[in-house]
Write a structure and sequence with these properties.
Layout (H helix, E strand, L loop, with lengths): L9 H24 L7 H13 L2 E2 H8 L3 H13 L3 E6 L2 E9 L1 H25 L2 H18 L2
Antiparallel strand pairs: 1-3, 2-3
Helix pairs in contact: 2-4, 2-5, 3-4
Length: 149
């Protein structure tokens, strides 16, 4: 077994490199599929997070997105200007605000996700055999297991 200096097998190191490259390309391609127009990548990311995880405070969003609170405040202000989020008093602490999606924000998130999923499904159908799609499903099961370790 060929090992790297850190005691990691050559195949594990190669798989890690290749996986990172492929996922980066896939993420970029999915971002191109449903152009969010006037929204920045960070604004789109916050919308998607709110759609998946529900309402959150600005500080929770800043920590989750790994940005400074000031940067998150600017992102939220832009989303607010587009009418995609709303802010309500936090029922647990009235000094804080909970940020949530407006109906327009939810529609934007759902439309983006649907467009991306349809593109990927169509691409897999048109360019992969049934056997290859089954291989992808098996690989995804393995990757899911890795994410839980």
């Amino acid at each position: 077994m060929d090992e790297t200096a850190g005691g990691i097998s050559g195949s594990a190191a190669q798989a890690a490199r290749d996986l990172r490259v492929v996922f980066s390309r896939l993420r970029r391609r999915l971002a191109e599929v449903h152009d969010t127009g006037e929204l920045s990548p960070s604004q789109t990311s916050v919308l998607t997070r709110l759609g998946k995880e529900g309402p959150a405070t600005g500080s929770v969003l800043a920590a989750a997105e790994r940005v400074r609170p000031q940067s998150m405040a600017a992102t939220l202000a832009a989303l607010d200007q587009h009418g995609l989020i709303r802010r309500d008093p936090d029922p647990e602490d009235g000094r804080r605000q909970l940020v949530s999606l407006t109906p327009a924000g939810r529609e934007r998130v759902e439309g983006t996700l649907q467009a991306r999923e349809e593109w990927l499904a169509r691409t897999l159908q048109d360019h992969c055999t049934e056997e290859e799609r089954q291989t992808v499903l098996q690989a995804l099961a393995l990757l899911e297991r890795v994410t839980r370790m």
